[in-house]
Design a protein that fits this description.
The protein has about 700 residues and is mainly β. The chain has 3 helices and 40 strands. It has a single domain, classed as TonB-dependent receptor, beta-barrel domain (Maltoporin, Chain A, Beta Barrel).
Length: about 700
Amino acid sequence: MTDQTVTNDHPDAASSTSVSQVVVTGLRPLLGDKIPLTVQDTPQSVNVVPEQLIKDQAVTRLEDALKNVPGVTLNAGEGAARGDTINIRGFSAFNDFFLDGIRDAAIYVRDPFNLESIEVLKGPSATLFGRGSTGGAVNQVSKAPQLEAFRSLAADVGTNDEYRGTLDIDQPIGPAAALRLNIMGESSGVADRDYVKNHHWGVAPEASFGIGEPTTLTLAYLHLSEDDRPDVGIPFVDGAPARVRRSNDYGLTSDHAISTVDVGTARIKHDFSSNLSIADTLRYATYEFNYRFDAPNFGSVADDGQGAPAPGEPLSAILVGRDSPSSSGVQTNLTDQLDLTARLDTGFIHHTLVTGIELARQTNHLDSYNNPFDRNNNWIPETPLLNPDPTQVHPDEAVTKRQVTDANTEAGYVTDTMAIGRYVDLIAGVRVDRFAADYTQTPVSSGAVLNLSHTDVVASPRAALVVKPTRWESVYFSYGTSFDPSAEALTLTTRTANLGPVKANTYEVGSKTSLFGGGLLVTGALFHTEVDNAQVNDPENPTLTVLQGAETVQGLELGATGHIGDKFSVVAGYTYLDGKTSGDAGTAPVVRYSDVLIPNLARNAVNLWAEYRITKPWEVGFGGNYLDRRIGNIVTPGTTATFAPSYVVWNAMTSYRLNERLKVQLNAINLFDKLYYDNIYYTSASENHVIPGAGRTIKFTVQASF
């Protein structure tokens, strides 16, 4: 749900109207914490997806919840790049996930069972987050204990073989302390993707002491377990997804995606007065994963493969090989953030000063398994494109390479929000990061150790001006920066170890207006993001990488979120993105490309969700998503453009509250059974895949409070 609207998630609420305005009470929302302004006055595009909207849409994955946010597209991955991988405004945000304001960059599928809301901040936000966040960042806000007892149980069944249950319990244990427990378990498939299976469970206990008092301590823990049979998608053929049945599966039934996430958080906050407070957040997290992955790949004729199909080649003649970039490992994150917030006056200017330090240590231990595909495309017998056999035997794989990365971050930041009278706010801030990474790679066969290291020290400024002609309107101009170090993804190569960070600048001008007595927020923004030192191949020596590429995305974003009257609510957004990239590609001879489309960027995107309360207990919802076609590859001279086609998918919901404690809900997802394609992965005409969206899915939910 865009901008200011958050919802009442109290399970005893008499109505599920998704725009009831209350104060966010999650563990650590950035809105109101690091950004000390109302959302209407925040000088950048911000989207908030609240828990009630997630429930009303029967969403069980973070990526699906983000379809309520315009400008987001989904990537597919392989090997160690699975889990949630998205683009925001055309730029990869794989490492730009945060949980309660702390980096959550890891490999897993996120489930919103323990989330109060999801905040998406568009544009570079290095003063808030440090490295990354060129297109934006996603902050997940965990549920927090409350001083009101409730119990909420939900059970889902779906035509995708889904059986899912969630339990939310809140119990005060004194006048200023409470416990909260969220539990989730799920077994499900994907409609018309017969071999894809999901088995998830999670538990999230939390305890808060001193709620509403000057000193508050919150202890939280999250465990999430995933044991899936992943979707490896459908290959591109002749410039588009292969014209095959949606149910065709080119992986193997022995494939698996296993992950275990454990996150422990301690947060203490003390208010010295209404004008001075200090907070410290300590987090330790481990992310274990084990992926066996067999993806469609045509390979090369020289290595016993067919090679990329020729244009017009009969589909019945095409064979598909299995590429197996499998991996396992564990990542750890240890982070401490100390924040001081002070409010003071200097003459007629009122200052809200947010300053702090961040210390973090991340480690990544990655094992890569033997993948014979590059030497023998037929190591698993190739399978017909029109009739693939996912039951073929996957030969045993051994670990061939071990990689270890240790990365340390030390950062200090300060932001001053200056209210110059009632009509003008001026925001200025800067963050200085030191990011140092040490990388070791050891092939098992030779034992030869490769050691690489790199350190970046980067200052990231931010400035913005907000003009508020009335209490219902704001107009703003903002400037922000971001940087992506060469070890951003916790890995280095001999080509990148000596490179400095890739930097971006964004300029945004926009307006936000509240209508209908503050019930509906209407937003609009124009923005321009530019990167002038992207990583590309050296035109003089293709074995080297240099910072000579360019990427530019400019566009328009519109949004309307809130309620009109007591019965109607809406979440709507539109983005227009014009994105181009220039650089050098390939090995010798180097091929130059200029002003070509950025892969997986949708020029036009629309999201819409509307709900209407017919009677007090009966509510209906309807909406959909439109995504323009997206190019899969960077088009260089001599190559052919490959596109995932545009699509419109419609969804519907109806719910009925039988009494104060019992509600039933019916959801139809992909109501008209549209064949469409979401997540894209493309490295060459031979190595690529795109994941089809699920077919029509009907879900029935019973929600009970007690």
